Amino acid sequence: MRKTGAIDYIELPGRNMSEVKRFYSAAFGWDFQSYGPHYCAFSGAGLDGGFQADGDEMHPHPLVILYAEDLAAAERKVEAAGGRVTIRHDFPGGRRFHFRDPAGNILAVWTDKV
């Protein structure tokens, strides 16, 4: 059961998808589900996540992603608390926004309620 405000997913840069899948499978036994040539989700790591290889979407650092039942309400709360929304976009299975917190960290919030 997903909980609003909880860390739900982590997205890692993955320039060479076949190499990162090979490495994490061999080193840690992770499983993978590919979603096209530029994205694959992983499981078996204790927290679900994915590798992003699309240069236009890929962050240079891991991206922590929180969950929200009501994405618009979460965005209002982030802005009211002093965060700055930097990106909004839809993707298969949901929508999300990225924000910068007062310390300069970039995180994201997503929902599957479209």
Question: Can you put this structure into words, describing what you see?
Answer:
This protein has 114 residues and is an alpha+beta fold. The chain has one domain (7-111): 2,3-Dihydroxybiphenyl 1,2-Dioxygenase, domain 1 (Roll), CATH 3.10.180. Helices cover 19% and strands 40% of the residues. The protein is built from two helices and eight strands; from the N terminus they run βαββββαβββ. It has helices at 17-28, 71-80, and strands at residues 7-13, 31-34, 39-43, 49-52, 63-67, 84-91, 94-100, 106-111. The protein has an eight-stranded mixed beta sheet, with helices on one face. The longest helix has 12 residues, at 17-28. The chain is globular, with a radius of gyration of 14 Å. The mean pLDDT is 93.
Write the layout of secondary structure elements.
Blueprint: E1 7-13, H1 17-28, E2 31-34, E3 39-43, E4 49-52, E5 63-67, H2 71-80, E6 84-91, E7 94-100, E8 106-111
Parallel strand pairs: 1-4, 5-8
Antiparallel strand pairs: 1-5, 2-3, 3-4, 6-7, 7-8
